[in-house]
Amino acid sequence: MNNMIKTTMKIKGMACSMCEAHVNDVIRKMIPGAQKVKSSHAKGESSFLSETEPNLEALKSAITELG
To answer: Kind of pairing, strands 5-10 and 35-40?
Structure first.
């Protein structure tokens, strides 16, 4: 049984469900095998499961580039 790592990130600036979808797309692109990817503009956070520790700095940079 694989031990999955849960990552939760605070993300400022998400205003709607489209923002959530764009952030989710970036997470899936940057984190191979990411599972249970979900974002909430109301909570201002995104979370996902991965098998390995994600590179959070690279992920933050990619999300920031979304605007």
So the answer is: unpaired
The whole-number pLDDT of residue 2 equals: 67
Q: How many domains does the chain have?
A: 1
Q: Say if CB 63 and CB 11 are below 8 A apart.
A: yes
| Tokens at 41, concatenated | 């503009």
Query: What is the extent of the structural domain holding 12?
Result: 5-66
User: CATH no. for residue 12?
Assistant: 3.30.70.100
pLDDT tens for residues 4-57? 999 999 999 999 999 999 999 999 999 989 999 999 999 999 999 999 999 999
CA distances to 4, 18, 40, 51, 58 from 22, rounded to whole Å, are 23, 6, 12, 22, 16
